[in-house]
Amino acid sequence: MLFRKTEKSKKTRPKETLSEAILGIAGVLVSGLFIITFIVQAFEIPSRSMENTLLVGDHLFVDRLTAVSKTNYVGPLMPYRPIRRGEIAVFISPETPDLHLVKRIIGVPGDRIHLVHGDLYVNGVKQMEPYVIRIFRNYDPYRDEFPSESPLGRDLKPGWPMTMQANLDHGDLVVPPHHYFAMGDSRENSRDSRYWGFVPEENIMGRPLFVYWSFNTTEEEYNHTSWSDRIQSVFHVIVHFFDKTRWSRMFHLVR
Q1: Do 134 and 144 meet the contact criterion of CB atoms below 8 Å apart?
Q2: What is the DSSP pairing of strand 179-183 with strand 100-107?
Q3: How far apart are CA 62 and CA 74, in angstroms?
Q4: Those residues with Cβ within 8 angstroms of residue 195's Cβ, 6 or more apart along the chain or in another chain
Q5: Considering 49, 186, 190, 214, which one is annotated as catalytic?
Q6: Which residue among the candidates 9, 10, 70, 103 is catalytic per the annotation?
Q7: N- to C-terminal Cα distance for the chain?
Q8: How far apart are CA 49 and CA 87, in angstroms?
Q9: Which pTM was predicted?
Q10: Residues contacting 66, CB < 8 A, separation 6+
């Protein structure tokens, strides 16, 4: 009798309706879209300007939450903190608005910056930068003695020489409020703030967290423009996924 009573007490679980299944899938998609839009986002490294910290073919997850400026409608709920000197940031290019760049922030608002023979001085103190590499070892007065050398004849963003002149003080470039100064770790191979100026605070998109996948490729192979080249590139990745994936860089923290 006890067995029969237990059987009768069991309730049949109702089957999920089609509308409930669709709502569940939609909820997952919306949550995923929110996460990849406002919290973390995937970016790829197409150039050598941040070698050896970041390599061409590195795929990163970027923290888009804590670096976003505080807004009136979010207020104290947003775990915001400003970008710090020495951190790497992803931002919208001040020179090409549809281009995302990854550089190291070497100057925050109020910092005084200059270079001597390629060595960086911030607020009068020479910086120890173990992440910086110099490949060519060639000397460029404008690049290596910035900002003391004349920018005349250089391929600079229009208006940058005038802005630079307005922010000079006793040989130092002073970073204005709500702006940053960014440079690549590969100092001889980076088009950065020396050439297109300060990064506005509102251009900052986030901080790289870690490399989730890295594929060994070249700058030339990576920057395809035609559809045929892109299809060929995808096929190349599929064929060489295992032998050209840099397995040692998987989940490598970006610093």
Answers
A1: no
A2: antiparallel
A3: 21
A4: 95, 154, 155, 156, 157, 160
A5: 49
A6: 103
A7: 69
A8: 15
A9: 0.81
A10: 79, 80, 81, 206, 207
How many angstroms separate the CA atoms of 217 and 18, rounded? 45
Per-residue pLDDT of the chain (255 residues; tens, 9 = 90+): 444 544 444 555 566 666 555 655 655 544 444 445 556 788 999 999 999 999 999 999 998 877 665 544 445 555 677 899 999 999 999 999 989 999 999 999 999 999 999 999 999 999 999 999 998 889 999 999 999 999 999 999 999 999 999 999 999 999 999 999 999 999 999 999 999 999 999 999 999 999 999 999 988 877 766 778 778 888 888 999 999 999 999 999 999
Decide if 19 is catalytic. Answer: no
Write the CA distances from 214 to 108, 172, 198, 243, integer angstroms: 30, 38, 30, 12
Consecutive H or E run containing 193: helix 193-196
Q: How far is 113 from 147, CA to CA, in rounded Å?
A: 8
Active site residue 49: yes
Yes or no: say if 132 and 144 are a contact pair by the CB < 8 Å rule: no
Q: Give me the residue label for tokens 């200059």.
A: 114
- Gyration radius of the chain over CA positions: 25
Residue 11 CA to residue 16 CA, distance in Å, equals: 15
pLDDT number for residue 66: 72
**Could you tell me which of 92, 88, 110, 114 has the C-alpha nearest to residue 101?**
92
211, burial (CB in 10 Å: exposed 0-12, middle 13-18, buried 19+)? buried
